[in-house]
């Protein structure tokens, strides 16, 4: 499932965009502790293509995609 | 030294993109088709499961539905396909600057000088892996020493395969194939060859060029050199393929054109668009051609030379001459097109005509430029010829604004 989400970002002076928080639909807010990888990638599971950020959120690892200016996550966590 | 040429073909491109964006229908038969109401209701692309039902590109949606009632048909999303096409080219650019696109979903790459990335086959595998990982669609790649065999290679095994056709194996791989597999052997050439006992590419290669010339004219010799692997046409650099060779527009009308007046209306809209695009690019044309397709899908084109012009009125005059001389309304027309060729730049002055009224031409030129200006500010439909109002639905399309895809030719 493709889940578009609100994201709070830092626009760095180098031009890079660094996502800081993901705002979930139920109002909760998740801090992104670390970004371990940024690569162009397709998401076969949720159906999309864009820049893929591998994010560590607490103890979980999640893919966050930036596709045509919008952010989405895959519903299920990476195993 | 031999060149290393790759031909990369995105498999069932439109359908693959739709499949990626609709994961819930993955693995089911899907197709991309035009708008039935606007009579663009044909299959544009289909995925592998749909192929198993025998669905073919170009057939009507209802025919496809008969073969496979569960077929899921998506409307085309050209903006997205162009984005994918651009991304794929960006990947190509990591390996070579010699890239010649052939439509949205195919391209030749010359990687002769890209040795630091590996052999042709290794680069081909890398390309396939990256296209799948980064874009989620599959590609098949042909690797060879010329463009013709590279293209054949990409068609041999798909989806998601690399096929190498070398000087050592092309006789085994290419020669047993049907003659129709060779680029530019269409249905009628294939038939003419078959009438002369030539059925495979190998038979073309082993036939004498003189005999082929007798069968197919000078094309025969070209095909002979293709079949023998003598094609040495270069992979054009990416930018140079953007040089415009001709400007054209065509349309499939919402209803068949039944009489001269219908045709006049539609052709005028097309001629205006072509003229306006000529002016945008600073060109004048010396050749006007028309394309007509009847409701039984028979089609033909005719062309004529003209004095260099970028005026809709003059293009239209040529268009009218062409169809009055060549079409006698045996059948209603389904789609029509206008094309301006043999382009010359209009910046270095112009040979004035002895016979035309030059003052009048200048006036018309000014008038058409003003129309361009008004349209660019207030929209295409803000100013139109009175004749367009004779049949509003028929003339209500904006070929210039809606023009998105430029098909390209090998030569």
Commentary on this structure:
The complex is a heterodimer of chains A (79) and B (411). With 79 residues, chain A is mainly β. Chain A has strands at 2-4, 6-11, 17-23, 29-31, 34-43, 48-57, 60-67, 70-74. Chain A has one domain. In chain A, the strands form 2 sheets. Chain A has a 5-stranded antiparallel sheet, with no helix packed on it. Chain A has a 3-stranded antiparallel sheet with strand order 2-3-4, with no helix packed on it. In chain A, strand 3 (17-23) and strand 4 (29-31) form a beta hairpin. The two termini of chain A are 16 Å apart. The mean pLDDT of chain A is 90. By secondary structure, chain B is α+β, with helices and mostly antiparallel strands. Among the domains of chain B are: 13-77, MutS, DNA mismatch repair protein, domain I (3-Layer(aba) Sandwich), CATH 3.40.1170; 175-227, DNA polymerase, domain 1 (Orthogonal Bundle), CATH 1.10.150; 244-402, Dna Ligase, domain 1 (2-Layer Sandwich). Chain B is built from 16 helices and 12 strands. A 5-stranded mixed sheet of chain B has the order 5-6-1-7-8. The model of chain B is unreliable at 404-411 (pLDDT under 50).
> What best-fitting shape of chain A do the alpha-carbon axes yield?
globular
How does the helix and strand content of chain A classify structurally?
A: mainly beta
Radius of gyration of chain A: 12 Å
User: Residue-averaged pLDDT of chain B, rounded?
Assistant: 87
